[in-house]
Automatic annotation (TrEMBL):
Keyword set includes Secreted: yes
InterPro entries: Ig-like_dom (IPR007110), Ig-like_dom_sf (IPR036179), Ig-like_fold (IPR013783), Ig/MHC_CS (IPR003006), Ig_C1-set (IPR003597), MHC/Immunoglobulin (IPR050160)
Compartment(s): Secreted
CC annotations in GO: extracellular region; MHC class I protein complex
Domain of life according to the entry: Eukaryota
Entry similarity comment: Belongs to the beta-2-microglobulin family.
Location, primary (coarse class): secreted
The Ig-like domain, residue ranges: 21-109
Alphabetical GO biological process terms: antigen processing and presentation of peptide antigen via MHC class I
The protein's name: Beta-2-microglobulin
Organism: Periophthalmus magnuspinnatus
Source species taxonomy: Eukaryota, Metazoa, Chordata, Craniata, Vertebrata
Amino acid sequence: MIQICFNSLFCDFFRSKHVTPPVVQIYTRGPGIYDRENVLLCHAKGFYPPEIDLQLLVDGVKFKDAKQTDLAFEENWYYHLTAHAPFTPQKDRKYTCKVTHQGETRSYNWEPDSL
């Protein structure tokens, strides 16, 4: 990790920050209804340090068309990142966002909207 220090106060601030895991949401752009084209999104926010890996999976396999936003920071120097992929949800498939931060991996499953 590259460390840039403009003054000792700035460096002390970053050295003192503790590891904060991300808060993760997995959702769709439009209503989450089977057999309708949509976009699957995985949003991770409020994490530190900034090194993180987001993967969108269908039945355990990476989406081939997945993209992600640039890593961005909030005014409190915590970070956020969003991965997204076009998809048409199928009833017999499992859609997951796999997040790895500081060596810990967690999976979050998408659930369709209830009718």
